[in-house]
Amino acid sequence: MKSVIVGTAGHIDHGKTALVKALTGIDADRLEEEKRRGITIDIGFAHLELPAPDGSRIRLGFVDVPGHERFVRNMLAGVGGIDVVLLVIAADEGIKPQTREHFDICRLLAIRRGITVLTKSDAVDAETLEVVRLEVEDYVRGSFLDPAQSPIVAVSSLTGAGLDALKSALAQVATEVAAKNSAALARLPIDRVFSMKGFGTVVTGTLVAGTIRKSDEEELEVFPAGSRVRVRGVQVHGSPAEAAVAGQRTALNLNLGGLSAEELARGMTLATADTFRSTARVDALLSLLPSAKPLKGGARVHFHAYTMETIAEARVYGATQLKPGDEAYAQLRFAEPLLLLPGDRFIMRQFSPVVTIGGGVVLDASPLTRKPRADDAIAFLKLMRDGSPAQMLAARAARRGTSGLRLSEVPGEMNIRREEAAKLADAAGLVWCNQVLVAAAAFAATKANIVQALKKFHDANPLVAGMSKEELRDRVNLGPEVFYSVLEKLAEEKKLEVAGELVHLAGRGVVMKDEEAESKKIIEHAFASAGLKVPSLKEVLAGLKVDKTRAQKIVTLLLRDRVLLKISEELVFHQSALMDLRHKIVALKASTPKIDVARFKEITGVSRKYAIPLLEYLDRERITRRVGDERAIL
Predict the structure, then answer these.
(1) Beta bridge partners of residue 269, listed in sequence order
(2) Which CATH architecture has domain 2-176?
């Protein structure tokens, strides 16, 4: 059954609550003070099922809001999730101040459908009723309640006159409302928290997106607190249900875990866990009412979205103020964090005196911490307003440059599921770096940066085989996912080579001058011909034609290529000599499973100065294992 949320709006004592009761049989005034004073103070709820024009059934959930100017903040807590508005105007009074303010709020929230209801039609004569109807027609003309597309229905809650016509109009308008996305990520702004004997803590709200099922296994996250709760029971419009879907008035019986009931309150939001993040800043498109005063940059306002409210500071991009009747891109900075997502509508009220001055729509709830240039910010936000989902994702990845955007962050930024984010990444032409998405231009720039960094390294170190991976990554300042993806791509394109932990440009490696190449041969020959009775490194280097610095670089190269092996601070051996030694010791195992230092000296012909470091080397290589004063051959 299709579910549609209907909200009332209008001046105090124009008959909103009486109208809801006449339609549904439910008194939405639940507070003792409301009944005693005869006015609505807080939001109330009712429900009704109607036959649709096509013969199906439609379930209407009513949100009745207070009309008194002192309770507009309560009205705002109820009006955020509605699909259809009933603008209630008493026939005996006509348009009044809160009629205007509520109507402004509905337009700022971009409510698309509604019905204008002239209540108390029994209190005036036919001529007066017609005059009021003409006045109202003129007032709503050009809006979503324009008489050309939206009915004006006169009713009497006292006599019942016009109620059937209103129900028919409601059924027709409700069929035109697009169904909310029940497959989306779940969000339930909380408007009531209370305890029921035998049940525990219950929260209610209008489920604005997704589906919430009765499941003690699945967790929901409480924002902005970040705590976790489980759902023990679900009610939809007062009846038990296995699940609530988007567009339904929902009550949840919660298993709070370590959370106390006192820590839950109106203004919090229940949402899919491990997906979203609260934010203290959003970028948005602001609209200022023509009746408002200019909004200066840095001005504080009362901010309302769904059931949330806080104080915000507004800073307009590219201007010092926003003029009445204009709109502009701006950043709102909140006194406390909230859960907001792109597409969320909000209302701004003047800080003092508290009157509605404007509203807008959130375009980016994850702005970067570094402040962008105004032109760049405006261009980005225009794309967030008008672009396709793929273009939006491409822009979000591009603004992060070479750092990229993690796939796990996309659902929270764009309010989409992970699998949809993955499809969009391909459509947007982004480069996958493991689970990080990078704009193609940034990926190309990163490739160029790495090549340039290696070129500078080779130019400065011609006798060094290459740069270590970590040194290179640190120099180009990249995260591991992007860095190794770029390395892999450059190697695939044969622009560089990776040898173990070293990276060098293709064809660069080591370039030596004649005297350097000759010195390399001299060093290698000196150690290769010496066997295990190697000379000191200082002696060998002293006989070279190259200076000490270049000689040391040649040695470093030979060590990196493992032509020479350093087994102690003083002793360097050619790899061939050590390989021969390993084979000789292993061959002894059959006849001599253990050797001591004296036997080792006898076999190799070296002095104790060489014997001890060589035996320790064999231990490290697991050719031998020390057992007391002997070595067991493994």
Answers:
(1) 189, 223
(2) 3-Layer(aba) Sandwich (3.40)
Beta-carbon contacts of residue 268 (< 8 Å; ≥ 6 apart): 189, 190, 222, 223, 224, 225, 307
Structure tokens at 84: 């259809």
Taking the CA of residue 494 as centre, how many other CA atoms within 13 Å lie in the half-sphere pointing to its CB? 1
Is residue 62 within 8 Å of 24, Cβ to Cβ?
yes
CATH class of 187-272: mainly beta
Write out the DSSP string of 123-170.
GS-HHHHHHHHHHHHHHHTTSTT-TTTS-EEE--TTT-TTHHHHHHHH
Q: What is the pLDDT of residues 323-363, one digit of tens each?
A: 999 999 999 999 999 999 999 999 999 998 989 999 999 99
46, 53, 154 from 172: Cα distances, Å: 19, 7, 17
Amino acid identity of 224? P
| Two tokens, residue 582 | 């390993």
pLDDT in tens, 67-93: 556 656 777 777 778 899 999 999 999
Place of tokens 């909103």: 16
SS3 100: helix
* Spans of all domains in the chain: 2-176, 187-272, 279-374, 514-633
Of the listed ranges 18-22, 63-67, 361-365, 408-412, the least confidently predicted one is 63-67
CA atoms of 577 and 527, how far apart (whole Å) = 9
Please say whether the dihedral angle defined by the alpha carbons of residues 318, 321, 325 and 327, taken in this order, is positive or negative.
Answer: positive
Look up the pTM and report it. 0.78
Q: CA 617: distance to chain centroid?
A: 53
pLDDT tens column, 296-322:
989 999 999 999 999 999 999 999 999
